[in-house]
Amino acid sequence: MKRRDFVIKSSLASSAALYAPTVLAYGTPSANETINVGVIGTGDRGGGLIPFINQIPNMRVVACCDIIPFRLSSGLSKVEGKAKGYSDYKKMLEDKDVDAVLVATPFSTHSKIAIDALKAGKHVYGEKTMAKGYEGIAELVSAAEESNSIFQTGHQYHSSRLYSHVVDEIKNGKIGKITAFECQWNRNGNWRRPVPDPKWERMINWRMYREFSGGLLAELCSHQLDFANWVMGAMPEKVMGIGGIDYWKDGRETYDNIHLIYSYPEGVRASFTCLTSNAMGDYKVKVMGDKGTYILDYAKAWFYPEGSYEKKIGEVDGVSGATLNWDQDRGIPIQFDHEDPSKQALIDFRDNIVNNTLPVSNAKTGAMAATCVQMGLDAMYDEVIMSKPQQG
Questions:
Q1: Distance (Å, rounded) from C-alpha 64 to C-alpha 81?
Q2: Interstrand relation of 319-324 and 312-316 (parallel, antiparallel or unpaired)
Q3: Exposure check for the chain: N or C terminus, fewer CB within 10 A?
Q4: How far apart are the C-alpha atoms of 18 and 151, rounded to whole Å?
Q5: Are 61 and 50 in contact (CB under 8 A)?
Q6: How far is it, in rounded angstroms, from Cα 163 to Cα 197?
Q7: Listed residue (190, 187, 186) closest to 250, CA to CA
Q8: Residue 96: CB atoms within 10 Å
């Protein structure tokens, strides 16, 4: 399917209604139900989520699947209790003990595996980015709409109670009229995984190859794109961007640095930068308005008001006149207790299954973020300004 043939349904064009839980009209909720999970893809992400599942009541891993034997062994070793091992995910989908699957495979396989799982009657937690390419996005949205199973996209910051609080504050006018987003995710590292045998190169380092991967934009910046869509309640209208393989000369095909600007309605611009040669600032999101700015990192947030602000003055460590409740260059820390976003997302997945509620991070919100990713990839690779696909 070519880009010009990809139609975003009108329900994706204005997304405000997509971010509230909705009770679905099927299934019988059971507060005591234990959700048996099969993990498809037990590499860094899939294997990393197993310990969280172990901690969540009424949720357990009963099966793992990976085509790489030592990755499968690693995943099984993290499971508390017994779990079956599979090298073919279709065999796992035939397992009647598996209620739900977590898909944490290479980006290019997300759509196919998730669709097969939905058709098999499994609930699906599909890791971000939801699907690769306009055709894969459209097919997965259709499959999720036609299924009686829960589909949740793995943009875990949707489940962060801190992030939800900040979004509510922004929508209630805390920072005034939104004027810009500034997002970055900088690292100083190769992003390449060790390969014990050359035959595993493209399977293990799939992020390096365009056939399988969307590179930094899909693997990292997609979270921040999803957040911007959430705040704006809309998709960007166009994007321009540039990137390159300028530092890591190791045969990779995906860029080692990217710089994009997305244009949202009403003149709001959102910049996204991702480096692999310098970690200054690490992960950061700034939402800027005419009354103030919210700054977020992985698990903390700050509010920086515009104009004059009467800081609290007191005595700190015996120093009279020191400021209280104020971080230099970031503002007022937001005090908010919350779970790790990845763990919270899995808790929400469990609850969405048990209570038959539509996830706030669902197939349609996931499709919005995935479409933004594809727009950005097209803009960088083709060196053009990409407009939002046609709405129908």
A1: 12
A2: antiparallel
A3: C
A4: 13
A5: yes
A6: 41
A7: 190
A8: 7
Classify 338 in phi/psi space as left (phi over 0), alpha (psi -120 to 50) or beta. Answer: beta
Give the position of tokens 């091992």.
85
Buried b (16+ CB within 10 A) or exposed e, 219-237: bbbbbbbbbbbbbbbbbbe
Residue position matching structure tokens 């805390």:
174
Q: Are 234 and 13 within 8 A, CB to CB? A: yes
Structure tokens at 226: 């999803």
Question: How far is Cα 44 from Cα 60, in angstroms, rounded to an integer?
Answer: 19
Identify residue 177 by its one-letter amino acid code.
K
HEC string of the chain equals CCHHHCCECHHHHECHHHHCCEECCCCCCCCCCCEEEEEECCCHHHHHHHHHHHHCCCEEEEEEECCCHHHHHHHHHCCCCCCEEECCHHHHHCCCCCCEEEECCCHHHHHHHHHHHHHCCCEEEEECCCCCHHHHHHHHHHHHHHCCCCEEEECHHHCCHHHHHHHHHHHCCCCCCEEEEEEEECCECCCCCCCCCHHHHHHHCHHHCCCCCCHHHHHHHHHHHHHHHHHHCECCCEEEEEEECCCCCCCCCCCCEEEEEEECHHHCEEEEEEECECCCCCEEEEEEECCEEEEECCCCEEEEECCCCCCEEEEECCEEEEEECCECCCEEECCCCCCCHHHHHHHHHHHHHHHCEECCCCHHHHHHHHHHHHHHHHHHHHCCCEECCCEC
List the chain pLDDT tens, one digit each, 392 residues.
344 344 444 345 444 455 555 555 444 444 458 999 999 999 999 999 999 999 999 999 999 999 999 999 999 999 999 999 999 999 999 999 999 999 999 999 999 999 999 999 999 999 999 999 999 999 999 999 999 999 999 999 999 999 999 999 999 999 999 999 999 999 999 989 999 999 999 999 999 999 999 999 999 999 999 999 999 999 999 999 999 999 999 999 999 999 999 999 999 999 999 999 999 999 999 999 999 999 999 999 999 999 866 555 554 444 555 555 788 788 999 988 999 999 999 999 999 999 999 999 999 999 999 999 999 999 999 999 999 987 65
Rounded Cα distance between 328 and 221, Å, is: 26
Rounded-to-integer distance, Cα 41 and Cα 27, Å: 28
